[in-house]
Amino acid sequence: MTIRSAGVFFWIAAVFLVANCFGQDKMKRAERKDDPDNYRCYYRPKFSAKERMKNYPFNVAAQVVLTSYELDFMAKKEGTPDLERIVLSKIQIDSLTDLLFNNFYKGEIWRIEGVGCFQPRNAIVFVDAAGKEFERADVCFECLNYHTGPTEFKFGDDCKYKMSLLDPFFASCGIKIGPRSNKPREQH
After folding, report:
1. Radius of gyration of the chain measured on its C-alpha atoms
2. Which site in 65, 74, 139, 180 is 20 to 30 Å from 150, CA atoms measured?
3. Is the pTM above the cut of 0.85?
4. Run of H or E including 136
């Protein structure tokens, strides 16, 4: 093989390789349609009640409690009593875990949207057998987000509007203050 033949072969191989790589990238981008509808929550009863209860912190909680509280500069001030505190029944816990773990993204997502505010006034509190709070998820119904602590845990897919599904759930359990406003709910 002459030097000239080797040079021609090199350029043909290089062109083929570059075209092949960029062609696949263009195809991947074309397949990757960022459909806004994929971010919405879609209910699919994938997990049974027994499977949902295996998720932390539900799997170790003796009680699950819904609360509302006064906001003190973007957090609940330690030692501040709850305005409302409702211990959930087994049926209510089943409904809550169904809402949290059986709502999914519709399709593939390619970005996570940030949240501009976080002023929670409600929480899902997890209590151990000794009656002590060991985990909580503070919920902001204004920006539709939640924050967990002291351990970070998730409630399944963080699909759009999942937290807005909690608003009527809190109301159905008897929480009157917090969701969507800091004013008492109107009685219908």
Report:
1. 25
2. 180
3. no
4. strand 133-140
Q: How far is CA 171 from CA 75, 92, 138, 164, in A?
A: 22, 12, 16, 12
Three-state helix/strand/coil letters over the chain = CCHHHHHHHHHHHHHHHHHHHHHHHHHHHHHCCCCHHHHEEEECCCCCHHHHCCCCCCCCCCEEEEEECCCCCCCCCCCCCCCEEEECCHHHHHHHHHHHHCEEECCCCCCCCCCCCCCCCEEEEEECCCCCEEEEEEEECCCCEEEEECCCCCCCCCCECHHHHHHHHHHHCCCCECCCCCCECCCC
Nearest to 76 by CA among 122, 116, 117, 115: 122
- 79-121: pLDDT as tens digits: 778 899 999 999 999 999 999 999 998 877 666 565 567 788 8
Tokens of 131: 């009656």
